[in-house]
């Protein structure tokens, strides 16, 4: 049996159908594909429904989080996530637009990549710039993790005590800091 040394947290989401079916079916098929590509899926959250933002801009999203064990380097893991997205017809023509599948590497153990200074730049980027700019390299942990109920609610389903390596707070503490309304919108399927 292979001994894995590293844990990664991956957020999954989608709000458009793919060849696999409706968004929940796409997420299930994507998880199976990740397993076929050498990721050992250790934990899987429940599936959650999240309203599209802004309200009325499209169908609701289905979101989940998985914890995987792997020895695949983070950059190669990100490439695998992009390959799986493409397999399910993900088109990257609009930042934060509707999609069949979104796979985000949100954390890898206590790794901060590429370095703390770069991470803090992306974490502190003003909201209007977040829409216009995207990093050219992998940033870990995901710089918007603490702001997103659709990630934190499923993350707390499987790893409520996971501690953010920069902020020094748990997933549950980050979730508790969000506005109650944005958390209440994330509903189990």
Automatic annotation (TrEMBL):
Pfam families: HPPK. It comes from the Bacteria. Its EC number is 2.7.6.3. Pathway: Cofactor biosynthesis; tetrahydrofolate biosynthesis; 2-amino-4-hydroxy-6-hydroxymethyl-7,8-dihydropteridine diphosphate from 7,8-dihydroneopterin triphosphate: step 4/4. Coiled coil: none annotated. Residues 10-160 form the 7,8-dihydro-6-hydroxymethylpterin-pyrophosphokinase domain. Keywords: ATP-binding, Folate biosynthesis, Kinase, Nucleotide-binding, Transferase. Belongs to the HPPK family. PANTHER family: 2-AMINO-4-HYDROXY-6-HYDROXYMETHYLDIHYDROPTERIDINE PYROPHOSPHOKINASE. NCBIfam families: folK (TIGR01498). Catalyzes the transfer of pyrophosphate from adenosine triphosphate (ATP) to 6-hydroxymethyl-7,8-dihydropterin, an enzymatic step in folate biosynthesis pathway. This is 2-amino-4-hydroxy-6-hydroxymethyldihydropteridine pyrophosphokinase.
């Amino acid at each position: 049996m292979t001994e894995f040394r590293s844990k990664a947290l991956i957020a999954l989401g989608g709000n458009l159908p793919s060849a696999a079916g409706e968004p929940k079916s796409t997420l299930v098929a994507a998880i199976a594909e990740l397993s076929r590509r050498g990721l050992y899926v250790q934990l899987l959250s429940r599936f959650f429904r999240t309203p599209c933002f802004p309200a009325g801009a499209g169908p609701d999203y289905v979101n989940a989080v998985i914890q995987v064990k792997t020895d695949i380097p983070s950059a190669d893991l990100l490439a695998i996530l992009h390959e799986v997205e493409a397999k399910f017809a993900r088109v990257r023509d609009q930042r934060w637009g509707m999609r069949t599948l979104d796979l985000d590497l949100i954390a890898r153990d206590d790794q901060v990549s590429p370095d703390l200074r770069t991470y803090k730049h992306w974490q502190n980027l003003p909201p209007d710039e977040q829409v216009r700019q995207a990093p050219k390299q992998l940033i870990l942990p995901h710089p918007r993790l603490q702001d997103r109920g659709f990630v934190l609610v499923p993350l707390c389903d499987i790893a409520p005590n996971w501690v953010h390596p920069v902020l020094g707070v748990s997933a549950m503490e980050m979730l508790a800091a969000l506005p109650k309304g944005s958390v209440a919108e994330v509903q189990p399927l």
